[in-house]
Amino acid sequence: MAAITRLAKRASFVSSLATRTLTSSQVNAPPHAAATFRRFPPRDNPSKRCVQWVFLGCPGVGKGTYASRLSNLLAVPHIATGDLVRDELASSGPFSSKLSDIVNQGQLVSDEIIISLLSKRLGAGEAKGELGFILDGFPRTIKQAEILEGVTDIDLVINLKLREDVLLEKCLGRRICNQCGGNFNVASIDIKAENGSPGIIMAPLLPPVNCMSKLITRSDDTEAVVKERLRIYHEMTQPVEEFYRSRGKLLEFNLPGGIPESWPKLLQVLNLDDCEDKRSAAA
Ligand SMILES: Nc1ncnc2c1ncn2[C@@H]1O[C@H](COP(=O)(O)OP(=O)(O)O)[C@@H](O)[C@H]1O
Questions:
Q1: Is there a domain that residue 220 lies in?
Q2: Is residue 244 a contact partner of residue 145, using CB atoms and an 8 Å limit?
Q3: Where in this chain does the entry annotate a coiled-coil region (predicted)?
Q4: pLDDT above 70: percentage of residues in the chain
Q5: Which residue's alpha carbon is at the smallest distance from atom 15 of ligand 1?
Q6: Quick check: 246 pLDDT over 60?
Q7: How many independent structural domains does the chain possess?
Q8: Domain CATH code at residue 157
Q9: Is 201 helix (H, G, I), strand (E, B) or coil?
């Protein structure tokens, strides 16, 4: 974890990094993915694990849902850069005025701003004694991946996948309770198998009665903006998949359906299916 705080120092060099590539001596040697799983032997006590994981995947795929569940299970913080951006937007922080247009048009925030926000969050976590992290929404560009690779070891990158028509529906169905902050989804997906493609069923994740009247929709979850975010994902973030694939760190995971089908399968592929705490991992 100490290494990650170097990200804060590195943040001041981001502008200069934007114009040059890291040399191999600045980039940590990539461990093979198989070694990743051997790093976490204490299956009986997942809280002893100190994972440094990344979630990749298109908008709406469920990165937040599964990253948050794994974070509860493994007792490591779930750090979503989208949340950091939204917190900054809601505050009167130094970047708030620059951010709203960028986010509402579905564009990426500059590497300089995003690294500054992430460094601040990691520094605050380290001061509280946090160990490890599950990053969600970072890195989103090759440049961000190179910067991260230069300051810490990422053990595993989980790449969540779902068909594109479902991604759009899931984004449009997202709702947040403006009181408790809970994330819900009113989309009900029921796509029949067709021409050799499997069908997919995803039940809505409905809020409790208390939250019903307090639901809001993210301002960037409109059809036009989601389509733009998907386009940007393919252009800017998809190459990050190859970045980690070539380093043996990428775990591809095709979501078979909603949480009841996908969560146990994800635990299985992560060799976490015998964790005692899995039943209590919060939604
Ligand atoms: N790593 C990042 N680099 C640049 N911009 C980011 C990053 N993470 C989040 N953002 C900004 O915050 C917005 C919301 O992010 P997020 O909640 O992760 O969205 P999504 O649901 O599309 O994955 C993004 O569209 C982008 O403007």
A1: no
A2: yes
A3: none
A4: 80
A5: 82
A6: yes
A7: 1
A8: 3.40.50.300
A9: strand
